[in-house]
Protein 1
Amino acid sequence: MSITRPKHIDQPTVLYMDGVSVSFDGFKALNSLSMFIEPGEMRAIIGPNGAGKTTMMDVITGKTRPDSGTILFNNTHDLTSFDEAQVANMGVGRKFQKPSVIESLTVFENLEMSLKGGRSIWQALTHKLTGEKIDKIDEILSMIDLKDRLNTDAGSLSHGQKQWLEIGMLLGQEPELLLIDEPAAGMTDEETMKTAELFKELSKKHSLMVVEHDMDFIEALDCKVTVLNEGSVLAEGSLSTVKNNQKVIDVYLGR
Amino acid sequence: MTMNKEITTAQEIKGGPLTRMLLNDAAGRKLLIILALMSVLIPLSNVLLPEGSFFHVSTYTMTLLGKYLCYALLAVSVDLIWGYCGILSLGHGAFFTLGGYAMGMYLMRQIGDRGVYSNPELPDFMVFLNWTELPWYWLGFDQFWFAMVMVIAAPGILAFVFGALAFRSRVTGVYFSIITQALTYALLLAFFRNDMGFGGNNGLTDFKDILGFDLQADSTRATLFFASGLALILGYLISRFIVTSKLGRVLVAIRDSESRARFMGYRVESYKLFVFVVSAMMAGVAGALYVPQVGIINPGEFAPINSIEMIIWVAVGGRGTLYGAVIGAVLVNYAKTYFTGAFAELWLFMLGGLFVLSTLYLPKGVVGLWAQLKEKYSSSGGSGPDENSSSDDSAVIEEGRT
Amino acid sequence: MFSLFKQIGVMLLICMPLMAQAAEPQPYKEDQASSAVATSELYELSQQLIDAGYREKQALVETLVEINDPQTLKFLQVMVNGDLYYRKDDRVIVINEDDAITIFFTGESITLENKRDIKKISVNNKLRTLLRGGIARLQIFSNNLELRKQAATNLLKSADDLDEATLQLAVEKEKNADVQEILSLVQGIRWLEADDEKQRLAGVELLSGSLYPDVRGALANYVRAAEADERSTEVAAAKKALDKIEAMLTANAVVENLYFGLALGAVLLLAAIGLAITFGVMGVINMAHGEMIMLGAYTTYMVQQLMPEHMGVSLVVSIPAAFLISGLVGIAIERGVIRHLYGRPLETLLATFGISLILQQAVRSIFGPLNRDVGTPDWMAGTFMINPALELTYNRLYIIIFSLLVLAVLALILKRTLFGLQMRAVTMNRPMASSMGIRTGWVDALTFGLGSGIAGIAGVALSQLTNVGPNMGQAYIIDSFMVVVFGGVGNLWGTLVGAMSLGVMNKLLEPWAGAVVAKILMLVFIILFIQKRPRGLFALKGRAADMG
């Protein structure tokens, strides 16, 4: 764990975390966590329960303030001093484990809301739907395969469809970095594979950080893997290297 | 094919704010027409028709209806924050009452030297308390325009300060409800004090005239009724404009999933604050129109129970529809007038029962019930209950998350 | 603080023998044999008084004081009050107290046909002084401690009633430390008027730090006199003594306010404990909580109506009765309404508010809109004295103890019983608890019943402090929520600290800001506090809180 600041800050990173610690009532959820993600990279995060995966996402997205440490976005913005909305508007999108869409709005309205820009109250009040925006929504709709559900209330979509709609909403935000929490949970095998394909497609334009338990899914993603344990990085590398790491085996199979 | 459908939908939505506001709101449109007709015809019938005529509306009835219109505007303001943004304020009566006090202070100054003590400057209660000078916060209230600015500004500023504090520290749900209740309770206690300079527990009353017109005259009453109707129509349109804009959808997003709205990049606290302040101002206007019609404003209006009663108007009418709030306010208040007159004992049982039954069996109010019945009779295979249960589930999930 | 407790302890120790003394048989018991003779002697003298002029009366009174008769004291007291009369036709000595006439020697009460049938045995100022001195002497050497104490305290007001020598004798003979202290204070007050400066200063020294209001008055007078005569050393010494007294009085006021604050805190605690269960543990917003308290208070009233003879017993019986009634109503509410609204807190709030209206109106229809009188047993009334300028009421003390007891019992139920375990299991992880065979529905109902029942018990306690009426619950609902929210939801310890600190803060603000402003300030404080710490004083932090 000899990551030193100068070495990595020189190279372009989309996300750079250094010595991030968070504790709740004495329990260290993150313990001097350091890692970085390069622009355009897709990274899978695995780790046992309580390893700090969700807390890490909370810290990056401004939901939780870390006790110490730096989180740089695009080598410039220190994310620890912004709230959720500001972080989102800088270009960090987050998808929750449970599908979180606006149930009483239609698919179209959900997507319309997510489109980049127009976050101020005045803009929201005077918002007009331009042809450009409709095209963008169209594009997303075909990507997430919900064209024929356009006018349906999001609440009456199936579980998988909600997951996809939420991904679509993230795309509408045009984020540089996407944080995705267990996307495959509750999906059929077929949906899982389809999602993996989608992510690979996305990684051409965006940086992705995917937290996942499903090893098949991670294998399908075919990317670098970081293993978290007790709030810090245990191992990093390709899935096969990580799988053979003795420390990782110890953690997963029990000591 | 799908592509085609997509374009038409977009075109429809694209039609501009005015279309969105009115075209997709058939029930609201009907309501507006009825309101507009009422606001014109009732005052006319009161003033022009002879007392014996069948179509003559007595001043008593008109004033009563005028009161209902004020309540309806208040209900719309409650629905705007509760129905659309999920903010349950149990202190909205505070804003209503503040608006009422601002109007009351103007009316008090209008009395001039016609009071019991004939003091040209000081209202009677101040003379009675041996005050020699008008307190600074009473200055300017002899000007109608200033009083009208304060009708909107006083509740607006209070809502802004209170809301900014509460929303920024993310006080939500029942916590927010409870502290708003504490807010109106604190104001109740404060306004009961004589040295606050608002007439203590007697409040402000014995008004003589408004803008030089005798408050007891039928023509003045008729004008006030018309103004109330107009204010309700305007309030409705403003609210409708807000909820049909993208801002309205952000409000719904905040209601359904606050964290999603945040992670989508919307400053939830700013949106809540905006709609809370707008709603408070609307409540203030309702209070200001209410006071000259009932002829008194006292601290009792701050009582927490009043604020909770407003919620039940909206709940009975059907939250999140705006027109439901209007219907609910009129229905419940008509029932109140009727029952407190006929069976005073029963009224609280009725009101209590309304709270219980409407939350248990009428989650969408009478408006929803109407829609449900209509659907049942037109296609006899209603999917109403299913929809209900699905939205309930989502509420549970939402609770679990936040 | 410690010295306060010590003082309370000392007071209790002192009070006990006091009470015992009061029940003791009359003094002079050993003289009963000679009583008949003595009475005749008193009788003789009284007959002579009827015809005597003032100068003769003085001589007669001086003789009276010397005779050893148990009725002399009463005789002198009646006389000094100007209530001593005689019947004109048969020269019978009577007492005329507010037109109620009793014969002095037999105690028999009589009615008069004409007011003029009796004539007053008049007294003048000189006689009065003489009488007071006589009374003081008789009392100060009495066997009855209470009487001696009373006399000593009276002497503080009029130190000149006794002459120096008698006073000195009394101080020396007195065995009770308290009375002796008061008597020496009386001496001190007398010395203030001595001719010798040294003795005056000794008097100041003696009086310094005493909390009796009369001592303070005497010192203040003395300062005025000394200032007029420009006796600067004495002025300085007396002022210093007065300052010391002022400081002690200020401390007294703080202690008293603290006590009131703790008592208010106890009331808040009682009102909020039930809510800490229903709101804190279950997350149910029960706006009818105040009405559960009201039901408890009305239960107390009903029980008292059933056994009007046994005030104390009825209060004890009321506790389980109120618990049962409020608890059963609570269970009915949970099963009937709240059960259908879990996960929808705002709807629960509205529905339970409706229930509160129904309960209020029901009580109003049954018992009428007026407040009901709930009696207070004797042992609840009365005060105990911490020091001469500070008396605290017993009922507040009992409320404080009672509230802590209720909290302790509740904590035990939660921590040590199977039901408590199941309850915590259900609130932490409902599906898991359910799959382990816990009947979650019943646990919910019983938990709610428990919270409501405790509110009922609070009602019993509150019936002893405030008016019992249909609206009484309303007064507590906002306060209770404030306490729970302030203390931190789901945390009994937080509820205790929240209630006590709010109570004390409120009472400490009151003398400075007035009751209403203090209340407003408290509400504003809590509103601001919730902004800063939305989860209260003792908040669960981090993930646990997110999940809860």
Protein 2
Amino acid sequence: MKHVFFLDGQEIPFIPGQNVLEAAIAAGKDQQIPYFCFHPALGSLGACRQCAVKIYAHDSKHPPRITMACLLPASDALQLATLEDDVHTEHREIIELLMTNHPLDCPVCDEGGQCHLQDMTVQTGHSVRHYSGPKRTYRNQDLGPLVYQEMNRCITCYRCVRFYQDAAQGEDFGVFGSRNRVSFGRLEDGPLESPFSGNLVEVCPTGVFTDKVFRHDYVRVWDLQQGPSVCPHCAVGCNTTPGARLGTLRRIRNRIRPEINGHFLCDRGRYAFPYVTANSRPLQPRLMGETTRQDAVLRQLASRLEEGRSGFLGSPREDLQSNLGLFALADCLHAPFAAVTSSWAEALAQQCLALPQAPSLQEVAAADRIVVIGDLDSIAPMAGFAVRQALRQGAALTVLASSRTELAQKGDYRPLRPSALRDQVAQLADDPCLQGGRFPVLLATAETLGPSGLYALRKTLEKLPANARAGAFVNRPNLFGAAYFAADGHTERLQQALRQRKINHLLCLGADPLGEDWGAGTWRTLAPGLDGLTLLDMVDSETARSAETLIPVAAFPERAGLFVNYEGRIQAFSPVYRREAQVLHSAVHGSGFPEAAGGVKHPLGPPPPLFWLGRLAEMLHLHEAWQKRLDFYLHFLCPERPDPEGPGVLLPDTIRARFEIAAVPAARAVTPEQWELDIFRWYGGETLADMADELHSLAPARGLRVHPNVQAAAATLHGPCGELRLPVIACAEMVQGVIAIDQEGFAELGLYPGDPVEVSWEQRQ
Amino acid sequence: MRVWRNISELGAGLWTTLRQLGRTSTVSYPEEPLNLPPRWRGRPVLTRDPDGDERCVACQLCSAVCPTRCIELQAGERPDTRRYPLTFRINFSRCIFCGLCEEACPTLAIQLLDEFAFSKEHHADFIYEKEALLIDGTGKHPHYNFYRHSGVALQGKDKGEGINEKAPVNVRSNLP
């Protein structure tokens, strides 16, 4: 049955459980009801008194009365009115009260043009305030490099606190003061600690919290070029809206996708974009360290490929089509190809894919028994956010990890060494933490658990009730896509070919085999056998610096592509802008007209990888075969192309089933006396995100994290590929006997999480 | 009576005509300067506030309202968080001198002054950059300073020091 109520005589459909305001907004009638404190994801509060409607009783005894739409449950045949004088008066007077102390600084306010308060003030017709007394002022707080506070503008709707404390469950932000001195911020100056602090910018209906990164290169929103994109910084694949102007990327905002990120975005997704504008980003092809023209570098590369002694290396950091393009080229040339840099990472990807359909974040938020394995917040913060939403609904959370993470403090924490983690996961089926649940969900950080742990997770899942779901997360946007077309043991075969001198040239796409990718230690030992390395990439990585040929590629907001997220959801993103010369001065520009004079700008941005690969195939006279193969693979993986505006397309289970028979490398045995390695990450850490100065300034110090009962100043770790000396950082949250280092450290040592390691401690002087 | 009124009206008309005898209303421009009305809409300029700082805060309302899209600017930020236009460019071969930018400007920075006759050899020369637009005066509004009225703090102006502002709130007080 269709439920409707009546607003000014018009039928408004609603779903039972909705309130009147929610239904009115959904029906596009928010022009008639102004509101502030209501937020679709944060719910109603009834604090601002703005969303007044007049309700007519059905009997003739009671006179009509004014009530708040956000607190009025929608019910059938409700008769409401807004187009009446007393409702208008209420709207206008309430907004005048809210505006009493609001400063007249819209021209210098970054919210101007996207301000809810501006919209509502214009909508209600308030233009001249009757109050002429002095206005209240506040001193601002320094909230770190990401969020800028201007407290004068506050209208005390409490959305920020409701988001930060209730939804994101952060503890370092709150409301202070009493009566009309209420202030929102931290107890003292300092960066906000929550990985979701950037959402304050979007949640705040006025300009109290604005984007500090955008502020440095500000442009009004009406001048921004915007389009649908997908976040490239982890496997969740949140939907984003990048905004660009004059050929440079200025900001990232959330794009609502209920299945994945809803109304929010983590700070990595929001503030990691300056990798696109980083000074170190390669923009011109480089040959032996010298900048060259496109043709020269392509000719040189084509002649190298014609020799037939080249290997191809794809990357989980690059999008699906580019990887497929590289795979198709390797296929045409009958050359060895690998999608990931080590067999361990390959097994990891295969085990992730072998898991049955993972729950979407929307489903995670509805779970009632959750087990989190590892530090989920630092790999995929939005997954951690979904767990917090489930906690708000009363879910029981169990965290298995080697350190007491923020999420662990919110649930039942079981301190475990990485090796014990696998055994614990294997026994989870009989564990009381999953018993009696209506919808149990297991979320793992894939790297901490390792391939054998993921295998154990899959076996556990088979013993659990049929509706139990599991998901594994990495901080690469396309590991799951990269793994699909990777044949078993392909990394090993590529490395073997290099060892046996069958190949002497490597063509890498977005990979960093000599820097921080898994197995980099092995690649470094193999590098002397290479006669040349060609890299197509968009960041200045370790490999880019030592590559013989460097070919720049367009960044993700500058091109179209496909990412496969942790659920196997193929999502498309479209080009948002073209990187162009920013003409700051017509005199500098010479003869050409600036845009203002009707002149055109010259695109400066590098082309996408597919363009380079296509040109290469053309020069090798393979274009037709290459295109045919590319189309075939693409059609095989996604028969229907996802729409950038749509929810994406889920990969069919039949393709996933192929990975259930993949071999699992045995985990290395560890004795209790040995030190064990675990991976340390922080929420803003990722290859591309590390290039973003503002976000990176919050990164914790590099070091070796151990329990404080180790009295040492520094330590040297010994691995099969090298040694690593790091300062010791005592960390009370760590489990004893575990050493946590970053991914670069693992790459240096040639080890993987959960491996035993030899340590020599250096005592404090 | 009626005849008398007709004659007087004729006489008044004749007098108006006769009054102009001996006067010349043609101005030999450009030899002679023009006496333009004060609201004349000539070439827009960027003015400074009474303290000598540039008034423009790069809010981009002028470029938004401009019907010919001839204004292009990029905001910059000074170390004291004061906004200013990093670049400000008007293409006078497109400008129609409508004055909407002046109306939209919340800081009275952009003002249409009296210059109206300027010719160039090339189109590109009509593109005026900020250096050519910014004048060393307050233009038509000698006293207005936006930052005295807005709530934001700046170097040399703390919170509560603006016009019609209370001293900053002590949020740690719980007195009624």
Protein 3
Amino acid sequence: MRSSPMLKAAGLVLAAVLLGLLAVQGSYALWNTAVSANAGTIQAADFRVSLTDTSVNNTTDMTLPDGTAAAIALTTTPAGTVLPGQATYAGVRLGNVTNAGGDFTIQAALGSTPGKTDAGSGLAGYLTVKAVAAAALDQCSSAALYASAPPADLPAMTIAKGATGVFCFQVALNAATPAALAGSTAAITLPIVVTQQ
Amino acid sequence: MNKMGKGAIATGVGVLLLVGGGGTLATWNQAQNASMGSVVSGDLNLVASNGKWTNAAGTAIADISAYRVVPGDVLTYTQDVNVTLTGDLMTAKLTVTGVGADGTGSAAFGGAATASATTLTKGTQVLPDAILKPSDSGVVKASTTFTFKSSATGRTATNASYSLGNIGYALVQQAPASANNS
């Protein structure tokens, strides 16, 4: 039987391919095995710090679910007006409520001197704010706690995982406050910054 | 002699010839066992024991799925991998498969976490191209380190997850020099 050169060429190519495939296949036929390390998945902790007012029903996380910073209005003690020469007190408890697996200590500090706004009345200039670190909210209304604290002090404290710390505030109205400011109001803001230690 | 008689005689002669042939069975003969023995195959196996996670403080982590990492955490995963190689011409390579550094979850951590390439050690490091022999059978220690960088800022990667589930080990026989490749 006579075959054309094309047919012969095709036959040669087919034979070469088959031989090549067989040669490659041979290397896969050797023994091999594989196992998984089962290392699992690593999960990052959250970074939750709770803020609680002296009125313990007033509480929030420092960071809201939408990622923005929370603001908490603090209850003053005694409640009501402040007379010249007298003071009112407030406090906030910070809780390190992270779910970290290992150690996770935070440092909480007042970020800057308290901001005071009075809508132009001038009352803010007669207010002195002192801040100190404490162990419990019920210490905040004790005047002795602030005796040695300078007005510009920015206290800081470390809080271990699962523990709490307290910042107490004293707002004193200068005894020389003009009577013309009676009935005026002022707002005081105290930024708190928390960092991982 | 009629045809029936001739047929009977021919049959008789044939039977006699058969009897004569049977006589050859009586001559000497002998059989021997070749004693080739049994052909026994070797073995190639890989068994990974339960791995162990520890944190930078050296504390064992009983359940990695319940542990939550924070910036500065360095976790190490160690695992014994038992290699079995049997066979006179057995050689094999042991390699790490799957994702290591910059694997799944790296993006979720915003680049704040890395997983090292898994290392294999048996006295000295077992490199991917090392040819293992049956004498190398035994426990190989595997180690992977996960680092949550201290440089993370703000609330970077809170609640993020990093999967290391693709990491595995492969033991692949290498063809003997005389392999027939069939």
Protein 4
Amino acid sequence: MSDLDDFKATYFDECSELLTELEEQFAAIEEGERGADRLNAVFRAIHSIKGGAGAFGFSALVGFAHAYETLLDYVRDGRVELTDDVVNLCIRANDIVADHVNAAQSGEDLPADYGAEEKSRFDALARGETASEDDDMGGEMVEEFDIDFTPVMVNLDGGGSGFAAGEAPVEDVFEAAPMEAADGQWEIRFTPHRALYARANDPLLLFRELAALGTMQVRAILSDVPPLSDFEPFAVYCAWEITLVAPGLGEEAIREVFEFVDGDCDIVIAQAGIVPGAGLDLGDFDAAPAPTEPQEPDLSSLLALTEEEVASPARPAEPLPSFAPDLPAEPVGAQDKFEEAPALSFADLAAEIPPPAPKIEATPVAAAAAKPASSEGEEGGGRSVGVQSIRVDLDKVDRVVNMVGELVITQSMLTQQMDETLRARYTELVRGLEVLAQTTRGLQDSVMAIRAQPVKSVFSRMPRLARELATKTNKKIKLETIGENTEIDKTVIEQLSDPLTHMIRNSADHGIESPEKRLAAGKPETGTIRLSAEQAGGNILIIVEDDGAGINREKVLQLARNKGIVAADITPTDEQIDQLIFAPGFSTAEAVSDISGRGVGMDVVLSNIKKIGGSVHVRSWTGKGCRMTLRLPLTLAVLDVMLVKVGGGPYVVPLSSIVETMQCSRASFERVPSGGRVLQVRGEYVQVIDLGQRFGLSTQTAPDDQFVVLCETEGNQKVALVVDDIIGQQQVVIKSLEENFERVEGIAGGTILGDGNVALIVDVQGLRTTHLHQNAA
Amino acid sequence: MEALSLRDDVSDKSALAGQNTLQLIAFSIGEQTYGVEITTVREIRAWNGATPLPNTREFVRGVINLRGTIVPIFDLRARFGDGQTSPTKNHVVVVMSVGDKWVGILVDAVSDILTVSKDDIHNVPEGNSIDTELLNGIVTHESRMVGLIDLHAVVSGAKMDG
């Protein structure tokens, strides 16, 4: 059971990757890139989702995915035109597939008719265009070649498996006449290949499934079974003929049963009414005396077949002029098509033919022959062409990251131990330490790179959100994403999803105006939300920007006063008002909509972002829009810090927030009426926080010997921290205080210094906000 | 280092201990003896200083580095309202797990491992509110009174305003 759960977990992992891929592909398709590879990628993704879903029995998902896949298939081979309408339908379908996947994952049931409307539209589209062509395998094989060419069904088992002359070698039909069931009697010939068994498929299960469709008779064809002495353990000797009586059943339904062994077996389906005798003399497909050599198909017959193909009058001339004459002609019979062509050996042979080798490679025939052999790669492992990757448990990576962090610290500690006398005496040691320092750096960077992921994985979920929001709010919203390849630590990315969702909701619900209002304001009808990511030094900036109405400051302030968030006698600056939207329990929406307005959204943003060591800043322009900036650390594991001393204890201040440091004796403090101090720096007055005082520590250091650490917090607000001493810069690994204790005001966490002692990380932003609260109180 | 692992030799004893008995690690603060159930104790180490935490009550002595993890240290004497301990190298930190957290408790000395019968555990007499708040019960062992520490109560309320 737990094994199955493991597989399921992997499947859902893959699904989320595939769904992300779908979003990406359609983003490109929407932009107008409608190349075949895009469609193929989409098709593969849907096919993989469907495949897994079938294995786990998520029948609703399978059903929907199958209909979707069929449509895609028709689009792919051009039977359905990829109009904007179809693209929109597909995008909607992706959402539904995602919902199905989610439902399957959480074990919920979606309404039975969920997605039925889209499904029927798929069917309508597929039917409308292809009423007379009802076979999806054909498309699957043609897709990649623009050349007019008839796909070849090949048999991996070699020519002999069950298709001895005189039996019923019925070729699969790609452009068959309409095959509506007349009396509902179907003849199915099922010839499994070795691969079918190798993939642990069981024909019995297939038969059971078939039996569910109607009354069934199965006959095993044992004519190829050799004497026991010749038995090869892994060879396949048995084929089956099935007579299925199921009135009103379409070929499609039968094909569906064999969906998952597609490519690993030969399936011939014919309707008994239409197929007289044993399937000879069919209108479009011919029963030809197949190569009679039972095991090894020989070159000549294969080539003959190829020539047939080339010379076939029914087909437009194919680019094989110099190929054909080289072939020893040995006509097999008058036939438009040949059938049994063992794929692997054929491909090999084709490549071995000496003179026109390059041409052969380029021929569709060779490609087609090679294709079924690699079809598995096409369907499942298509990604392997690009970057190779392995799945690793995040815990394992984290363990490495932690150890590398410790290593970095030990290394910096060692370096600190080297004083001048040591340096002079042990030059080799010094050199060794320098190399060690370099290597550790490199190691650290590489390890961090493992955890880093493009923000794309989060960004790609947002277009869907924007679409849904647009529908719900009756607004026109366009979402633009920029810089989605920016890489951030995986943990940060995981924490980003909720905040981004809330921010985009907020923009869509409160920011972007209704189309009428926008037009009246002289703006384009469609509102734009721009989501961008960029790296700025040791930080990543994620910006959500909209061209809506901006924050209604009057309303915000009034609400904040009503809710007691801002005291009546305090007049905040515009910027402070803007930040108020992040206060807990704050909401400006007049009516609580189901999108946002319950007042829980934006403070979730703030708390989530704070949790990962980031900060949020909002800036609004009335009538023009609003910009929210998330500043996130590049990595969570290692922090560059300045080590300071306060009241005898070690504290560290993140280097990223430090602007400058100076000695107190050189700093110009001013008293403000309230008794506090401010620092004047280049004409700017900066709030002063005496860390010793704030942390309730006694200090023996004379005020003039103290230092000022000038820090910048969000929104370019500066704050001056007074500390007893500045010790130096170093890198530290962040350790959680909350793991064994609880959050401490003004402290962002702890870290372990080279001497094994714990130093506390000063939460500069937190200090400033608690300060404000205390003032307000 | 100075840490002394008790886990190994203890396991034999727990095997001997019947179902109705409880094994305690007893430690002293001044004249008073307290005990905690031995299974909660992770390790015992000598006091080696701690980094003080700001904005916390006086019984929070700070945090120490326990093999890469930050563990808070509670001064049990201060917790019982008897003023802060002035720790020396001879003072001992008992590291134990409370729920899923690890905490250290600063005591004067670890005295013994006691096996007591559960029937011998008495309720804490009403009266001193701190005692009733922080003790689960009282047990008499060889005419000594041992207070059973309620670890959850000891580590709660560490914040200044909480």
